[in-house]
Amino acid sequence: MKLQFLGTGSGMPSKQRNVSGLAVTLAKQTWLIDCGEATQHQMLHTKVKPRKVSAVWVTHLHGDHVFGLPGFLSTRSALDGSSPLTLYGPKGIKKWLELTMKVTGSISAMI
Question: Which residues are catalytic?
Answer without folding.
Answer: 64
